[in-house]
Amino acid sequence: MGETSGGVRVLPRPLKLTNIHADMSVTADHIRDKLIKELAAVHVDVEDTSPNRCAASFKVLVVSPQFEGKQLLQRHRMVNACLAEELKEIHAFEQKTLTPEQWEKQKTK
Fold it and tell me: How does pLDDT run across 69-102, given as a tens digit for each residue?
């Protein structure tokens, strides 16, 4: 099971299970790219709202056809599920979720 060294049994080190993304720095670009890819978003605005832009607080606008027929809470859960790993590193996260139709109506106001 383990090797001996001078009469002392040395056990192998246990595997350290780490988060693959633990060394990943959460950036506005990373968040934007992930939302576009995983939610088929047609428009995403991401603003780093933390002091000194230290990537601890973000405000996002996500426009996706996947939000069609979904209640606000369902949409927010979709975004939270998409960014589950990133949200572990973020201290504050504000989101606005719209369908493409809602986005077009809002732009004309």
Answer: 999 999 999 999 999 999 999 989 999 999 999 9
Tokens of 1: 């099971």
User: pTM for the whole thing?
Assistant: 0.75
CA distance 35 to 32: 5
The four Cα atoms 45, 19, 55, 46 give a dihedral, to 10 degrees, of 0
CB 24 within 8 A of CB 32: no
Give the separation between CA 57 and CA 48, rounded to whole angstroms. Answer: 6
Residue 20 structure tokens: 């693959």
β partners of residue 102: none
3-state secondary structure the chain: CCEEECCEEECCCCCCCCCCCCCCCCCHHHHHHHHHHHHCCCEEEEEECCHHHCCCEEEEEEECHHHCCCCHHHHHHHHHHHCHHHHCCCCEEEEEEECHHHHHHHHCC
Do 84 and 62 form a contact (C-beta atoms < 8 A)? no
